[in-house]
Amino acid sequence: MSRKSSFMLVLGLVAGLATTLMVSASAETPPEAANSAAAPAPFHPSNLAIAGHRKLTAEDFEEPKACGKCHQRQIKGWQGSMHSLSFKDPVLQAEWALAYKATDGKALNDCGGCHTPIGIATGTVKFDSSLGKHGGFTAPAQAAHGVSCDVCHSVSGSTASRSPLGQPGNASIELNPGETKYGPLKDAKSGYHETQYSELHTKAEFCGNCHNIFHSENQFPIEHTYDEWKASPYAQAGIPCQDCHMVPVEVAIQVADRMVRAKDVPNHGLGGLAAKGAKKEREIVHDHGFVGGNGVIAAAMGVPGAEEHKAEAIKRLQSAADLDMDVKKGQGGVNELRVKVTNLRAGHHLPTSLTFIRRLWLDVTISDDKGRVLLRSGELDSHNRVDADTVIFGNHSVDKKGNSTVNPWEIARFDELNTIPPKGFRYGKYAFHLPADAKGFKVVARLNYQSYDQHVADHLLGEKAVIVPTVEMKALTRSYDASLKVAAR
User: Fold this and answer.
1) Weakest-pLDDT range from 24-38, 112-126, 234-248
2) Residue 33: pLDDT above 80?
3) Residue partners of 447: CB distance under 8 A and separation at least 6
4) What is the pairing mode between strands 425-433 and 180-183?
5) Half-sphere exposure of residue 454: CA atoms within 13 angstroms, side-chain side
6) In 405-476, alpha helices (H)
7) Structure confidence at residue 483 as a pLDDT band (50, 70, 90)
8) What is the pLDDT at residue 466?
9) What is the per-residue pLDDT for 298?
10) Distance from chain centroid for Cα 230
11) pLDDT at 32
């Protein structure tokens, strides 16, 4: 992606296309039972549903500022988060507009189901061809807040079991806005609204309702962050998404290193009151910034609190992986450097989400003791891109004819898989010659990250509208003597 550094964006949340049928559930039935009844999908191909088949308006949902009057800590985290910008994000708007035009409008519900559930549920999202480079979307204030407080806390159940694949994804949530707010506290009391305990809100499946995206026609998993977690050691240890993404990075690091729940981290410091005027202190009051690897876009848009999100996102990226290396002598005087990249602390793959346009790569330089560069790989060129020989960790997507594509609505499969699973590793391998007169050499390896490939950013927002920032996640320097033994670390 290219844009002015002043409008840098490390982004996320550009939706793929959502899946097929989903059904609404009755307000009287519990979430599990509600999942079984079959009925026409009101927001096909999104899996979004409304309890009791009610007709909703945007005014049925609370404004975040109303929630923030009592839940001050939570609103502070949410402001500037990617959840708060899930509709306004300019990259999402551009990608969504292209999808909308390419699919004759089918992508309206596809992308909107997760990025503005209120807008889709109320039918208030409208396409406007005059917005941006490719067109864009408008919505009333409540819907334009994206994934707001009253989106998540109006979720009364999941429609996952009625989706084509029978699992969370493509906005598989049932909305039931009103006086009752659903959440993870069993004994919550409020003078402003009724409360109801929701076990779903304590589980990774709650997040998986939108952090799994399947193509609406061929059901291919375009984004599968929840599935990556489900197959991970974190799932086996009972550690849900919330224990890493709703706590400060320092606590998330201990969760990953100790493989324990956030509540079991010694001195986690997360206790306190869940709301202004509350009478009971909670063991954990969760942050609502939901910070992952994205944070720069909010800062670029001037959103309050965005700089904190940006700093937190960078800290998370820089704590996620580790590097190691070794050098072996090969045949014919060729040496092989292997750089090992370990996914140390992410509960999903590195990278995750839009794995076909994220950029996670190795930047490696080998130079001898006389200063001669023996190998250079992964250097950014004048267009803010790396060359084709760079070791990139990600997946390559193709359409049904096998042609390369990064358009979510065209993707039929991945023909190359190279993401790094939780607690797993991948190698970057490099062959090089050491000159006969060299007494040693030095290796400098860096693991770098960009939210989007620069070419994608140029296409969506215009050439050089934004220069996609690079975050150095990890760096390692090691010196060797001519016999390939480590001389210094």
Assistant:
1) 24-38
2) no
3) 321, 323, 341, 360, 361, 362, 363, 472, 473, 474, 475
4) unpaired
5) 20
6) 454-461
7) very high
8) 86
9) 66
10) 15
11) 39
Q: How far apart are CA 15 and CA 108, in angstroms?
A: 11
Residues with Cβ within 8 Å of 267's Cβ and at least 6 positions away in sequence, in order, are none
pLDDT averaged over every residue in the chain: 90
Q: Is 476 exposed, middle or buried (0-12, 13-18, 19+ CB in 10 A)?
A: middle
358 and 451 Cβ atoms separated by less than 8 Å: yes
Paired with 324 in beta bridges are 340
Distance CA 33, CA 41 (A): 17
The whole-number pLDDT of residue 488 equals 63
Amino acid present at 87: F
Pair type for strands 49-50 and 173-175? parallel
Domains of the chain: 5-282 (no CATH), 321-459+468-488 (2.60.40.10)
Tell me the C-alpha distance between 287 and 274, whole Å. 10
User: Buried b / exposed e across 243-259, counting CB within 10 Å, b at 16+?
Assistant: bbbbbbbebbbbbbeee
- CA-CA distance, 406 to 395, in Å (whole number)? 10
For residues 382, 388, 391 and 397, what is the CA-based torsion angle, rounded to 10 degrees?
Answer: 110
Rg of the Cα trace of the chain? 24
Residue 350's DSSP bridge partners are 420
Strands 321-329 and 180-183: unpaired
Residue in the structure block whose two tokens are 């729940």: 261
Look up residue 315 and give its two tokens.
């800290």
The string over 77-107, giving b where at least 16 C-beta atoms fall within 10 Å of a residue's C-beta and e elsewhere, is: bbbbbbbbbbbbbbbbbbbbbbbbeebeebb
Q: Calculate the alpha carbon distances from 486 to 141, 326, 370, 483 in Å.
A: 60, 9, 17, 9
Name the percent of the chain in helix, strand, coil, to the closest 5.
25, 25, 50
Reply yes or no on whether the pLDDT at 26 is more than 60: no
Cα 85 from Cα 65, distance rounded (Å):
15
What's the distance, CA 448 to chain centroid?
Answer: 17
Residue 341 and residue 423 in contact, taking contact as beta carbons nearer than 8 Å? no
Residue, of 92 and 4, whose pLDDT is higher: 92
For 248, the token pair is 């400060």
The owner of tokens 């292997």 is: 338
Q: With CA atoms as reference, report the closest residue to 391 among 413, 375, 412, 367.
A: 375
Return the C-alpha torsion angle 369, 371, 372, 374, nearest 10.
60
